[in-house]
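Entry 0007
Protein: Ribosomal silencing factor RsfS
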Amino acid sequence: MTDQLPPNLDAEAIARHCVTVCEERKAADILLFDVREQSILADFYVVCSGTSMPHVRALAEHIRLAMQDQGLAARGRDGGHDSQWIVMDYGVIMVHILMPDLRRYYCLEELWDKRKVIYQGGAPLPPVRPGATPAPLPPHQLARQDEERAEQE
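Output (structure tokens):
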């Protein structure tokens, strides 16, 4: 994967720079995964949350500008102006910025071994807003709850 970077750039350093931008811009629950041995899509995954849709968009824009300063342009980006999840593909680095409810629902961090986390920071995910309807649990979490209930009985 590192052959996609200009020769003077280090993929891990660039990924850590993304994390720094997330920290500076107050992203919540920032995780950096080193998945060089598991993924053919990227070497590093950054997962973080914004606290509002404008915050999610601002995080994405600041990361875009920081990567542009490093001479990198996204190969792809998904998530529009009203999106609650923005994905930015820099070849060796994939950046996922999600609203907390979507983050809780999709549990991206469960895709990778916790031992592959090389950085964890930022404020914790904000709690579910009082009076808000909680997002339904995804099927894999429902199955886990059913298994836990059966074990307790």
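Curator remark: The first strand starts at residue 28 and ends at 34. The two ends are 48 Å apart (CA to CA).
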